[in-house]
Amino acid sequence: MQTKYIFVTGGVLSSLGKGIAAASIATLLKSAGLKVSILKCDPYINVDPGTMSPLEHGEVFVTDDGAETDLDLGHYERFLGENLSQLNNFTTGRVYSSVIEKERRGDYLGKTIQVIPHITGEIISRIKDAGASKDILIVEIGGTVGDIEGLPFLESIRMLGGELGHENAMFVHLTLVPYIKAAGELKTKPTQHSVGELRRIGIIPDMLICRSEQSLGRELKEKLATSCGVAKNCVIESCDQPSIYQVPLSFEAQGILDAISGKLGLGELRADMSEWNELVKRVVVPANEITIAFVGKYTDLKESYKSLTEALIHAGAATDTRVNLKWVDSEKLEPSTAESMLKDCAGILVAGGFGLRGVSGMIEAAKYARTTNTPYLGICLGMQIALIEFARSVLGIKDASSAEFDKSCSEPVIYLIDSFIDASGAKQIRTHISPLGGTMRLGGYECHCAPGSLLSKCYGGANLIKERHRHRYEANPLYRERLENAGMKISGESDGLIEAAEIPEHKFFLGVQFHPEFTSRLKEPNPAILGFIKACCAR
To answer: Which of 4, 10, 83, 104 has the most other CB atoms within 10 Å of its CB?
Structure first.
């Protein structure tokens, strides 16, 4: 079957949930037996989001092959239950870089390089590459219709839609139907204006997905269908839900598969969502409840930890437990406040991050967990913090620190290695002055687990696991012997690099250099995070 494409655009304003809508459609189509993938096109000029502040962009999601991508790819993987790659996300910056590189090589034979056809041609080529060998490719266009930076992408999908033909391309437009409290009614005018803008560009939407605070009702759906020129069964409401994992079920109940099949000629589609439905029930109405302390430095923007908060929901569904998060800003955590801020929590999680800000508070959190036998999970920087705290408090190395925080520190328990082998097997060189973009250890690496260790037990007794990384600094092996002699066990290694550390005498104290949240799924929660939540429940 020729690959069919579903293009998802957004209107009125940003953050309406295009990624969730696209992932929900993909989940239903996959559950109906089709081979599905998703692509995110980002209009910003950064080559990738790797150097963007978490407070600016939210989380940077990392694929198994080491691509730093938009956080929507995390939603795609969690909903589809599949690993995506470099092919599934690209930006304006990457497109222009590629076109300029080709121009410098002379690939365009001296022609004048223009947005049309060269930039649009590059975008179309990348979309086709992502759709190769798939039944359906869902393409989400970032930003909002009307944004100047998104115009080349919209022109590209307009051109591609014409090339593919009527039965091979479908345009879905997600928009806002706001409730005006003073008037006591939902308003369709923003959607009509947004569709008008889309039609002016040359794209006629085949389906509307309408974000709203409450149900639209039959009359409002008919009004939208008539005014926007779509079929009545192609107006799908997307109301606020207690959980994002309810969205595919809501779409299915409204007959979205029949509408998609009718447009793309897919025949009868029946999705098997029974297992999904059972897990969603556990998410929405769980039998148990716990609260853990989530210690981080980007707590002002919760999207900075999107994969991690979702991974905790997955572990909660597996244990039939609601995991409540007590957000603890590490900058406000001090020796005098640690007890009052952490004592009521069943466990302590210290998340990843970059730079010195908030580190002292993280160290206090690790110390509190270690000395009170409170379950602890340290991720990336959280593991490094645990090693520094242990070196200072137990080994008596008062100057123990990280070269990231103090490049001239005398006791670098955490240091910067000059070279390493990346996920593709190539040798990478990095120093303190290396550009930030692309000089981290990125993507999936194998980790050897010490037999009988807590790490191995979390992963069902496995001796070898594979998890994803995103960091520049490593635990210094020169301190390994002293750490282990004092009770800190190194339980995970990757080509001589320290991947995990734990305290065997503790109820649950585990630090991992990798990011376990990147591989967590609703149907398959990450074992390390699941083990932590089980320990918190037991406490």
So the answer is: 10
**How many Cβ atoms from other residues are within 10 Å of residue 182's Cβ?**
5
The Cβ-side half-sphere exposure at 13, using a 13 Å CA radius, reads 8
Catalytic one of 77, 155, 493, 517:
517
The C-alpha atoms of residue 11 and residue 520 are separated, in whole angstroms, by: 31
Q: Is 310 a known active-site residue?
A: no
Distance separating alpha carbons of residues 7 and 97, to the nearest angstrom? 24
Structure tokens at 429: 């060189």
- Averaged confidence pLDDT in the chain: 92
SS3 content of the chain, % helix, strand, coil (to 5): 40, 25, 35
Please tell me which residue in 380, 449, 458, 536 is annotated as part of the active site: 380
Beta bridge partners of 323: 290
Look up residue 468 and give its two tokens: 């994803």
Q: In the annotation, is 380 catalytic? A: yes
In the beta sheet, which residues pair with residue 7?
139, 171
Q: Which amino acid is at 472?
A: R
Token duo for residue 123: 């975008």
Could you tell me how many residues make up the chain?
Answer: 539
Confidence of residue 399 (pLDDT cuts 50, 70, 90): very high
Q: What is the pLDDT of residues 306-329, one digit of tens each?
A: 999 999 999 999 999 999 999 999
Residue with tokens 């609703």: 522
Within 8 A by CB and 6+ apart from 218, the residues are none
Q: Which residue in this structure is represented by tokens 């520094």? A: 388
Which tokens sit at 7? 């293009």
- Please say if 517 is a catalytic residue: yes
- The pLDDT, as a whole number, for residue 436 is 47
Task: Determine the pLDDT at residue 435.
Answer: 46
